[in-house]
Fold this protein.
Amino acid sequence: MDIVLRAAEKIKSMEVRGAARIARFAAETLRDYALRIRWDNFDDCMRKAAEILLNTRPTAVSLYNAINYVMSYSGESVEEKRENLIKRAEEFINWVENAQKRIGEIGEKRIKDGYTVMTHCNSSAALSVIKKAHKNGKEIEVIATESRPRWQGHLTARQLRESGIKVTLIVDSAVRYFINDVDCVIVGADTIAANGALINKIGTSQIALAAKEARVPFMVAAETYKFSPKTLFGELVVIEERDASEVAPKELLDLGVTVRNPAFDVTPREYIDVIITEIGAIPPEMAYIIITERLGYTGIGEDEITVDSRHFD
Ligand code: RUB
């Protein structure tokens, strides 16, 4: 179980972070753990491991979808089960890789030569779009927010520079100041609810508000495993609140200052122009269809949401 506990710690501490990476890492961990189980109680061991991984960070539904996908294994004997679980984990990992590439290809069409693009936090899906546009010869610039308190914007700025893309780093509160210099905004997603709302890094909804006011298109890059079956029946997405020490020094905390540190916020669908998924660019209103028809969640009216065992490439 060590391998699972270590992986869980890496997700909690954000050594492994970002919705896509977390999901992929969970699938890899379940696969690697399955290879080590030498006892008959394969199902119990796997269930326990899945539970530990699921309880690391609450907001990104990609983690839930990854675990659910891998854990829908079947088989009679332990060997059959193991084999099927490993196959499903590999399928999920391929899904992550292929989806990101496809999103880049589909999304880059929305970015024109000469565009200045604003992004927030550090989203591999959003960066895939930006990098693909650059690779296709478009001269673009990016304005990247710092994304306090964990500074994921620094990762974004570094990754863009390493790809040869011009990037300007701004503080989060300067978004409205710069929004009129921007041709479009593109961000990633931790979760997309059945009603089309986007849950992403704290501050995303403020950017969407500024973009709407300035009539700047607001785009989301999201693989279909970021859509939340749990929200089909109105379940609210849990917003992770992280430790106060990420925001304030001890001296302030010792004075009794209360700190709130939500890591994510909710952008209503009215603020979103388009969601770029690996199966096409869709309006946020199509989220329900993605969950039921693409992800195959069919449990309407049942206590438990069930997933059929369709496979993805
Ligand atoms: C990361 C974050 C990213 C999404 C999408 O938050 O909000 O925008 O996860 O990223 P944290 P990706 O750093 O707290 O995990 O497109 O890579 O899945």
Residues 2-101 form a domain with the Four Helix Bundle (Hemerythrin (Met), subunit A) fold (CATH 1.20.120.420).
